[in-house]
């Protein structure tokens, strides 16, 4: 038991380092963004990044996650390699189709969202970044499956360094602002595919496993709904704030959300990266119940402590990172969102049971209901209390999802 917990902590800690390097881009570059981007520009960036995450989540069909679920219990090495190749070639096909469909619509997206054609080029680079981002999730998931955490850190750290340097070049030197940030994301995704090509080739054979693909799509399809409504739950508030108060309020709220999401970045996402491959292998272990109970206990303790620390020092941190005083009021949402992430972390451990039993429809149901409640609360509370209402809406929605996941 202790050895299993020790392995989980080790894997989570290692992936935390890699995850930090990826997510720190937004934090390290906050002084650069707040110095060179107005609150309106930062709000536009938040909207574009939300769209990027939604598109990658939807059109990726959750094939990387399904690949891990099919790969982990498989004992035949050749079968494992065909599952990897099937997942990769499927995402490449999806990326090509997506680019062909969306690139001609860049101008329409710009007009619909920002009522001007001026941001058409933003969407061109955004759609390309989405297509490449869908593909690079497969080799990253493969690295996790092989438990090559050291290589994962190297890849993510190099990507992080490249994106930081490109951001500085495009934003501070070339002065192309939001467009330069999106271009940096595109180049970062391309870099990951190039550097992970050797491990992908080593663990693949050129054989499409149609039966595995059908099973993975059936497994992943309900999770697409979960992802979509997760994004609506966590990102939809930006669009509602934009509707009632404009891009400036979106920018201020997004900064507070980013500070609070340090918990999501350091704890939740890192835990998911390191824990899922181990959890799948613990399915038939006789000590599984005790193991998962211990993990949840320690995990919750770390989440709560982290939320307290972030909440206590949020105002000072925002003043340090944001040179523009218009951003400083964003600290008021940090404690609320930080606690929402604590509940989200606990809810995630309950929802894992849906994955173990391949009943991912339950997961979809929970997230759909949570997102609908969140949108309704946002419309009611944002109108009256501004972006503070968005933070409260998120907290209430995730609490309801936690209770429902536990019951199911």
Write up what this structure looks like:
The chain has 408 residues and is mainly alpha-helical. The two termini are 27 Å apart. The mean pLDDT is 84.
Provide the descriptors you would attach to this structure in a database record.
408 residues; mainly alpha; globular
Task: Give the total of beta strands.
Answer: 0
N- and C-termini, Cα separation:
27 Å
Mean pLDDT across every amino acid position: 84
Percent in strands: under 5%
Shape: globular
Order of helices and strands: HHHHHHHHHHHHHHHHH
Tell me the Rg in angstroms.
21 Å
Overall structural class, as computed from helix and strand content, comes to mainly alpha
Unreliable spans? none
The largest sheet is: none
Count of discrete alpha- or pi-helical segments spanning 4 or more residues: 17
Question: What level of helicity do the residues show?
Answer: over 70%
List the helices and strands and how they pair.
Elements: H1 2-28, H2 30-36, H3 39-59, H4 63-71, H5 77-102, H6 106-114, H7 120-145, H8 149-173, H9 177-202, H10 210-245, H11 247-260, H12 262-281, H13 288-312, H14 314-321, H15 334-356, H16 360-385, H17 387-407
Précis, in short:
The protein has helices spanning 2-28, 30-36, 39-59, 63-71, 77-102, 106-114, 120-145, 149-173, 177-202, 210-245, 247-260, 262-281, 288-312, 314-321, 334-356, 360-385, 387-407. The chain has 408 residues and is mainly α.
């Amino acid at each position: 038991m202790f050895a299993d917990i020790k392995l989980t902590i080790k894997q989570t800690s290692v992936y935390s380092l890699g995850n930090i390097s990826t997510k720190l881009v937004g934090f390290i570059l906050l002084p650069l963004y707040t110095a060179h981007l107005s609150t309106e520009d930062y709000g536009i960036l938040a909207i574009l990044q939300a769209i990027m995450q939604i598109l990658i989540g939807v059109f990726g069909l959750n094939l990387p996650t399904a690949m891990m679920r099919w790969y982990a219990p498989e004992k035949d090495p050749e079968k494992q390699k065909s599952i990897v190749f099937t997942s990769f070639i499927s995402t490449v096909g999806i990326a090509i189709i997506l680019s062909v469909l969306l690139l001609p619509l860049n101008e329409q997206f710009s007009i619909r969202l920002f009522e001007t054609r001026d941001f058409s080029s933003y969407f061109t680079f955004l759609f390309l970044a989405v297509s490449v981002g869908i593909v690079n999730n497969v080799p990253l998931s493969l690295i996790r499956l092989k438990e090559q955490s050291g290589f994962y850190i190297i890849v993510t750290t190099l990507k992080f360094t490249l994106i930081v340097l490109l951001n500085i070049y495009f934003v501070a030197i070339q002065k192309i602002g939001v467009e330069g940030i999106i271009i940096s994301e595109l180049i970062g995704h391309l870099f990951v595919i190039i550097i992970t090509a050797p491990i992908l080739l080593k663990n693949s054979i050129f054989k499409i496993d149609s039966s595995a693909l059908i099973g993975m799509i059936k497994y992943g399809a309900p999770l697409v709904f979960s992802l979509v409504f997760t994004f609506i739950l966590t990102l939809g508030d930006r669009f509602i704030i934009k509707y009632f108060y404009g891009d400036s309020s979106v920018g201020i709220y997004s900064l507070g959300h980013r500070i609070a999401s340090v918990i999501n970045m350091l704890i939740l996402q890192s835990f998911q990266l390191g824990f899922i491959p181990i959890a799948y292998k613990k399915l038939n272990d006789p000590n599984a119940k005790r193991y998962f109970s211990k993990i949840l206990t320690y995990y919750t303790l770390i989440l709560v402590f982290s939320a307290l620390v972030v909440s206590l020092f949020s105002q000072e941190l925002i003043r340090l990172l944001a040179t523009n005083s218009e951003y400083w009021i964003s600290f008021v949402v940090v404690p609320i969102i930080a606690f929402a992430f604590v509940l989200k972390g606990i809810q995630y451990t309950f929802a894992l049971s849906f994955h173990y039993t391949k009943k991912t429809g339950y997961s979809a149901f929970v997230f759909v209901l949570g997102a609908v409640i969140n949108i309704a609360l946002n419309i009611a509370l944002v109108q009256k209390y501004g972006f503070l209402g968005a933070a409260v809406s998120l907290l209430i929605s995730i609490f309801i999802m936690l209770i429902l996941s536990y019951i199911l």
